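Trying the structure run again after the queue cleared.
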Amino acid sequence: MVMLTKKRSKKVGLPAGSLVHIGDRKTEKTTIKIVVYNQENFKEIELEQLEAHITSLNKDSVTWINVNGIHDKDVIETIGRIFSLHPLLLEDIMNTDQRPKMDEQETYLFITMKMLSCEGVPNLIKDDQLSLVLGHGYLISFQESEMDAFGTIREMIKNGRGRLQKMGSDYLAYSLMDIVVDNYFIVMERLGDEIEGLENELLKYPKQGTLRSINRLKREMIFVRRSTWPLREVIGDLERRGSAFIQESTFLYLRDIYDHIIHVIDTTETFRDIIAGMIDIYLSSISNKMNEVMKVLTIIATIFIPLTWIVGIYGMNFDYMPELRTKFGYPIVMSIMALIGLLMVFYFKRKKWF
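Done. Tokens:
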């Protein structure tokens, strides 16, 4: 189950801009990969000495710096120093509880967003924070874990497929954001399948596990909503205001991302309404089931009320009762009583009353 909030107690009392990692450490070691490309060339490097390579950036190429693991304060500080990034921006990068946002400075554009994925059965939402620093001719992406979410992008650049080699760093930033938003659809599809299965279960045989699943889905839909609504504001604001770091031709693709986010938000709101209705259906189903059980038990009790009344008056103390002098009368009667009890348990089990 996803955590709706993450502990910030480590930052209490520290001045603004202090670099403290907030969230879970999802990788042991921070790794940095650089992809440098243009229409003719492609080069991929796994860095050991960051500053030695950054100082030799080629202005005629696009440089993509991908950082996996944001817990290492020294690495984040080094990148910030090389690219003159504001300390508050570096603080946001290391804070995995950061709300999706955009911030444009004179030399770069900063965007942070949530990457969502589903794992296991039932579908558990896993979240990773993605931060992008876009400048003229370069893009820096920060990811929490070693998950290679953008391997397809590197392959497309390497093989010369699509527009990536012909376009600038702004189109690369769009491509990364597009993959993140496309994964939202995969998450929503899997959650939709689970919701449909729970609806069928509610109508047939609701149980306590069903209610737990509904509550888990409710929390996860809240988390999805918190991840997508601010992102809509970020893309919409970026499209309205424009940016010196994004070419006019790329804004058309950003509008496509905006439309996809609106679609995801609409689906999220629909699922939230369905889940809210499922709780009412569960309570109604439990109430109807209880009424059905009480109806059958009432019928059985009503049948035996007059018989019990007659037995209570006479006490079954007759002189001519052959069972009283039968050698095996007592064990036979006890066996019949036990058999009746077992048959009733079997009947109740078959009716799924317990």
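The domain at 20-283 is CATH 3.30.460.20 (Beta Polymerase; domain 2). Worth checking whether this holds up in the mutant runs.
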